[in-house]
């Protein structure tokens, strides 16, 4: 576990930094932005329920809302002191920040429909005015519209045939025959297959490492599916990282919970799930036991291995939780830079010693957001963080930062889901199967936007027996207009004809 000590370890300049490292699962002061739902356990409601949902992330809260609408008495058990899981709206130095999942888009129909249902405003990132892109000789500074022209050509080649392999992208095994040809490919295999010149390959590896954890580890088929879900265009693929709920991702959860009014118990990590012929007993680490004829496990796949199941999990579930499905070492940082202070984006290539693979300031007067998938990057060390920034932007000056380390968080044990080669055909369908009276849900096992907020909501609907969206229904949900604040400024892809 990382210490979270201000300033990091033992370097002389540490006092310059008011560094904060947030263990993603650690208790934090509740802020207005976090808006943690009230613990609504009512002792009079007893210990017997129609359904117990374990995990109050997007999937668990969606399933809870759906089941409550069907008249079920639902107990929602959450390990942390907040709802949201791998989404986490927080405040830091006066800024509302998202420590986990952030961006949502109209191409993601399930979350888009929720934003409309609850009339939640979204805001568009203004986007960078400068792009620092890798070149063979270091970093080059470009106008974003210029920087993305070559990248667009390369991405389009990289994703060749994706829409053919995933013709119905919310149904990933529709063309099982074609998927089978690519399922064993890693992102690195695809890069190798393209035999790119080095100056071209480094324009892709920031993304393949960020999404896959490493290019070797990540499966080609998942990013191909995301490309197909994005309409098979560079603009759609990058465009899904433009809009965010203006009141935080937690506003979606709070709206759902206000409607559903379940019995919600925070600070209640589940230790065991024991089934017998008629019911399931769920016991928390504190020793509280609850029963129901049905249980929905809406925790991350990687967390299943920390919970005792009786009877034991099926082989596919055991394999998935042991091997892991999430990006293994993702850290998300928020950095206050006194220089530069303008809006920029920087992408660093994989394998050349850059701890930060992607960073940028996308709105004026906001801190810089940065991502790292480097397992050796010590984010408790403020000097190491500043050096990592300076490797990309020489002369950058850091005042402060905060980091969320999702891989050491015991209630996620990894970041966003990202499948490994061969997991789609071998595991995907099996992981959605119930285990007796226990069902499973989450972005990690979703059909569509697997690894995204949208996938979590989709899978919460599926597990609760509610219809999910695809095809014309998805298109109709996406066509709904959402209130956008402030005005959209699409400088990022200026000239590329983006929505
Ligand atoms: C750094 C980062 C950036 C991301 N960026 C984006 C983005 O921009 N857009 C996007 O769409 N997606 C993004 N994602 C992915 C997205 O956040 C997740 O896919 C989604 O939120 C997962 O939802 P879930 O409900 O499936 O799982 P979770 O959110 O993980 O919810 C599971 C819940 O189970 C609880 N739990 C775990 N163990 C136990 C236990 N033993 N007992 C009781 N409860 C337990 C957890 O505390 C948690 O609340 C990002 C994720 C990360 C980490």
From TrEMBL:
Belongs to the flavin monoamine oxidase family. GO terms for molecular function: oxidoreductase activity. Residues 58-464 form the Amine oxidase domain. FAD binds at residues 78-79, 270. This is FAD-dependent oxidoreductase. Its cofactor is FAD. Substrate binds at residue 371. It comes from the Bacteria. The keyword Signal applies. Residues 1-37 form the signal peptide. PANTHER family: AMINE OXIDASE, AMINE OXIDASE [FLAVIN-CONTAINING] B. The keyword Signal applies. Keywords: Oxidoreductase, Signal. Pfam families: Amino_oxidase. It comes from Lentzea alba.
